[in-house]
Design goal:
Elements lengths: L16 E2 L15 H5 L3 H4 L9 H11 L7 E3 L15 H11 L4 E5 L18 E5 L5 H7 L6 H13 L3 E9 L2 H11 L5 E6 L11 H15 L2 E4 L1 H4 L9 E2 L4
Helix pairs in contact: 3-4, 7-8
């Protein structure tokens, strides 16, 4: 079975193809359900980042099958390709290089902040993009929910640097946990973000306490006013009026 795969369900809204390089992630996010997806205990998944067995060789074989494809490969939905600093073998850098050698565009999604900047030169090619998950303006909230991930400021610095290098940038505002902060983030950062993707908090008791019907129209108004591309995920569309413009790709 190939390691480049077509995602299903809610994650398929983000990418047609993806690859997961690691089998664990030390970020310790309070809303993460990846361990359940992998059928392992949270303590096992929240261990120091470990590459999947033979992932580089397996990716090299798959890359040949997708050579010259215009469809980007996203890394990663499970684990984070910049979860920590690696000594010796750098699987993430090698994986990006393999895909680019075969003219396959790469979309990165990370909470690793400036750790990713070392690989920005590999993402300047056509169709490539750099994205970060960011749901906060208050770093105290980030620390509570994402204790092992990069700070808000560090992730913003990475987005700004990537944008300055001509790399297409995107921010995954998912999960929305404090809607007011998400709206402020969109308003303050859109100068450096080419696309916003917004999704609901799921599989957590707090989700039932958020007034989604009240806040989702405001989130939509914020992304529309930003003038950037955006995607409101299916999980939030039920709280919008019928016929609302839930996606814009004018600048892709």
């Amino acid at each position: 079975m190939g390691v480049i795969y077509a995602p299903k369900g809610a994650v398929a809204e983000y990418a047609r193809l993806a690859v997961n390089l690691y089998q664990s992630c030390p970020h310790g996010c309070g809303y993460c359900y990846a361990g359940r997806c992998l059928h392992v205990r949270d303590s096992q998944f929240r261990a120091p980042a470990r590459p999947r067995s033979g992932i580089v060789d397996r990716l090299r074989r798959d890359a040949k099958k997708h050579a010259n494809s215009p469809i980007p490969v996203l890394m990663s939905f499970i684990g984070d390709c910049y979860a920590s600093e690696f000594d010796g073998e750098d699987v993430t850098r090698e994986a990006i290089a393999i895909l680019r050698e075969h003219d396959v565009p790469v979309h990165v999604l990370t909470k690793g902040g400036m750790r990713a900047s070392r690989d920005f030169p590999l993402l300047t090619g056509p169709g490539c993009a750099f994205g970060t998950t960011l749901c906060w303006t208050d770093d105290a909230d980030r620390l509570h929910w994402e204790p092992g991930a990069a700070s808000v400021a560090d992730r913003i610095t990475a987005i700004k640097m990537a944008h300055s290098l001509g790399i297409r940038t995107w921010v995954s505002v998912e999960p929305v946990i404090v809607p007011e902060q998400c709206i402020s983030l969109i308003q303050e950062l859109s100068e450096w973000v080419d696309e916003w993707r917004v999704g609901k908090l799921n599989y957590h008791p707090l989700a039932a306490e958020i007034e989604w019907a009240r806040w989702t129209p405001k989130l939509l108004a914020a992304v529309k006013t930003s003038g950037r591309d955006y995607l409101i995920k299916q999980s939030l569309r039920q709280y919008l009026p019928e016929g609302a413009e839930v996606e814009r790709r004018a600048n892709a």
